Amino acid sequence: MSATRDRAVLAAMVFAVLLAQVFLYPGIDTLVAALGAETDLDASMWFLAAEFAAFVAFAGVWGALSDRAGRRLPFITVGALGGAVGYLALAVLPELFSLSFETVLLMRALQGATTIGAFSLAITTLMDLEGGHGRNMAAAGVAIGSGTAMGAPLGGQLYEFGPFVPLYAAAALLACVAALTRLVPDRAPDGDRDSLGRIVAGLRGTPTLALPYAFGFLDRLTAGFFALVGTLYFRTEFGLDPGATGLVLALFFAPFALLQYPFGVLSDRTGRTLPIVAGSTCYGVGVIAIGQAPTIELVGAGMVAVGVLGALMAPATMALVTDLAGATERGVAMAGFNVFGSLGFLAGVVVGGTVAGAYGYPTAFLVAGSLEVAIALVAIPAFLRIETDRSATFAD
Question: Which residues touch 298 (CB under 8 Å, ≥6 apart)?
Answer without folding.
Answer: none
